[in-house]
Amino acid sequence: ILIDISGSMKQNDPKNLRRSALRLIVGLTPPENRAGVWTFAQYTNMLVPLGVINDSWKKRARSISERISSPGQFTNIEDVLTRATADWDKDTDQYRRNIILLTDGMVDVSKNKRENADSRQRILAEIGPRIKVAGGKIHTIALSERADHELMSALSNMTDGWYEQVNNADELQRVFLRMFEKVSKPDSVPLVGNKFQLDESIEEATLLVFNKDPRKPTRVTTPSGASFDANNPPTNVDWHRDEGYDLITISRPETGEWSIVAAMDPDNRVTVVTDLKMITTDVPNRMAIGEFIPVEVYFTEKGEAVADPQFLDVVQVSTSQIFKGEATEARPLHSQGDGKFSVNLGEGLSKGKVELVINADGKTFVRQRRQATQIVQPVKLTVDDSDAATAAVYLVYLEPEVVEEGSGSIDAWLEDENGKRRHIEFTLTPDGIFEGVADKEGLVGRQVPVINVSGKTLSGNNFTFKPEAAAIKGLPEKEPEPEPEPEPEPEPIPEPKPVEASQVEPEPAPEAEPEPMPDTEEPEETDMLTIALVIGGGNLLLILIGGGLWWFMRKRAAEDDVLLDDVDLDDVAADAGGDETMVVENADSELEETVDISAEDKK
Fold it and tell me: Which of 104, 139, 235, 363 could cross-link to 162 by cystine, CB 3.0-4.6 Å?
């Protein structure tokens, strides 16, 4: 257990709640484990030497916890990790190795920024990998927003540890409880309505009761009806009252139903020391959405697996999940006939922290195991698309903290409203990113991308995940230019019937050419328009013929007058006896007079 005592803790933990949090985990940890406590700032101090946990170790740790304060300068995380794990040179089957690291700051070993950066890099590149090889897990608590969350998260992910961010020191006690359950994996019994059952196999029971109101002290009632509190506990009860909680340890407890008289709290616990243990599969600290984990449960008594059918036939094992304070309906685990119960977990899990609770009821005994896990999205999807783009580009990133490198594969397509599909081919880039290009040419309407990602998690389990992606629109097809419509042919104008002329046949008049028909948008004309054109054309032709006849008759009358004048002129010439000159002159004079008289008559 590594605790930051740098000067910045004065602001982030002004009430020194690190002390009571340490005492909580010390009191809960069952015997025969080994633990040690180090504090650090500029230098590292071994507050409680590494040793086997027993009554004397717990007493010393509780007493010396009062020394925790905030006197130091700098935050030398590299040094405390190095010293606390100095003998972790190789993996061992004798112990599960765990580190709980609490800090509120960044790596800070000097005023030289370069030295700080180098120290941080050594933690990530050398110390973390060494601890992982030795079988160690680093569980980190970042107390404040200014802590190096990236470093804390990286150390936990690297070693399959647990990471918690705490913005208020008042939460430290409950965070240390979760860390204790991660590290110690204690045997416990379910607490329902502040009541719990203890069987004859239990040698010791420890009650953790959070008490928000010190004016209402906690009380405990035994199966026989006796009641006691911190002021009058029985001789077999060790009652430790601390800031915000009570820790009550009962040796050789009475068999039967016990009850706690206090406000109910979801973090209240009853842990036990017993020879009858429930052994469960360890759920990884991080699970992928779409991952299914086989969970097995079996029982041991004094270290030997229980195979007695009479025992197993009456045991009922179930599991439920707590997500955002809400518990799901319990699911039964099925007996395999060999003393083991199993179920596949993973269906319906959403992103976030989930607590898995396994309960066993054997009629004469009950057991419970709680495990927290972080549900993460195994892939990240980005889309590069716009209405003007001819293609949509999809990039799929595999999450390295949960997905095994090189294990991914993708099956994807676009699907239209009629269910028609078009395959999207994904290729793996040198950077380890899957890239798929969806050509929008020829696509019509709304297209929904369906992307199925498969792979293997770091836990060795298969997963399938379908990230959500927005629909795209296909590019509209280019329509061919319309052919021009042919102009309608004008309807022929019917020829009028010939008109009878007078007996004197006139010279034929030139035929009138029909007027060109005006262009019209409508290809067809109405019947009324046709009739009007025919009548109008006929009338025009009649007028032209009549005018021609009038002109011809007038011209013929004028020619007759001229011929008559020529005859008179010849008579005059004969009477004159051949004097042609005189005759002509006289004739001209008479002609002029005749013309003039005719003109006057016309006037």
Answer: 139
106, 112, 116, 122: CA torsion to nearest 10: -170
494 within domain boundaries: no
CA distance 94 to 116: 36
- Shared-domain flag, residues 154 and 200: no
| CATH number of the domain encompassing residue 220 | 2.60.40
pTM: 0.75
Contacts of 140 (CB under 8 A, 6+ apart): 101, 102, 103, 152, 153, 155, 156, 161, 162, 163, 164
CB within 8 A of 10, min separation 6: which ones?
70
Mark whether 148 and 267 lie in a shared domain: no
- pLDDT digit string (tens) for 455-512? 999 999 999 999 988 888 876 655 656 666 666 666 666 665 555 544 445 555 555 5
How far apart (Å, rounded) are the C-alpha atoms in residues 332 and 308? 20
Same domain assignment for residues 347 and 434: no
What gap in Å lies between CA 190 and CA 200, rounded to an integer? Answer: 16
Residue 547 clears pLDDT 60, i.e. is over it = yes
Asked whether 314 and 362 are in contact (CB, 8 A), the reply is yes
The reply to whether 480 falls in a domain is no
Same domain, yes or no, for 45 and 105?
yes
Structural domain for 253, as ranges: 186-274
List pLDDT tens digits, range 288-303.
999 999 999 999 999 9
540 shares a domain with 469: no
pLDDT in tens, 316-356: 999 999 998 899 999 999 998 899 999 998 888 889 999 99
Are 5 and 39 in contact, with CB atoms under 8 Å apart?
A: yes
- CA–CA distance, 233 with 382 (Å, rounded to integer): 62
DSSP 224-256: TS-EEETTS--TTEEEEEETTEEEEEEESPPSE
Q: What is the domain count for the chain?
A: 5
Asked if residue 176 is part of any domain, the answer here is yes
Residue 431's contacts (CB-CB under 8 Å, 6 or more residues apart) are none
> Residue 356's beta-bridge partner residues?
321, 371
Instruction: Say what the pLDDT of residue 567 is.
Output: 44
